[in-house]
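Morning. Coffee machine broken again, so started the prediction first thing and wrote up yesterday's gels while waiting. Chain of 206 residues, entered below exactly as on the submission form.
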Amino acid sequence: MKVAALIVSHLAVAGGVYALTDTRPVDTEVKNEGYFQVDTTRVLAATIESLRDENRLLVFSYKGAANVRAERTVWWLFGGRQELSVPAVVNYYVNLSDLTLADVAFNEKAKIVTVRLPKVTLGEIAFQPESATTTNGGILTYDEDQIEALRKLNYRAARKAMVAQAQQPGLLNAARRQAKTNVVSLFEIPLRIAGQPDVRVVATLD
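Came back before lunch.
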């Protein structure tokens, strides 16, 4: 996993060079109340840096289909219609580019790390036109320009339809659950590598 590899490489730095040369703000934010706390904070800081490098974290995907219909009329006499059924994939992301140590709280006594995440967002609608079906009808559809105009109308409607589908509570909740699961795992891996498997990670979403 790309993210895990980045985290491990950052941890190697956190365990060695940081102790000798690092003068970044994270050092001034750590209260020296024992080796365990300082080490945990450094691990968390390295993990956050690795996740920020990923920018947007893909957490969930939904594949559905839009079924839409467009009609056009010229001079109230000539009409054309087009029915379109097109599958599409919608990706759900969590933007980690602004994640900082302020978004992570460590309760040393309870051994719990709490990570506050931004909202899950939708990516672009990835249509699969090669698998689409189109049915044209009416006098206007004898004209290729009119067919193309109907196609554009249908794809605009299909985009709106897919966004509406993707925002259904069931799908959004599934994406949120997966976002938490993914981020918890990405924080737990470096903690285990650092010899702290008893620290539990909890993720929350805005």
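The longest strand covers residues 56-74. Going to sketch it on the whiteboard this afternoon.
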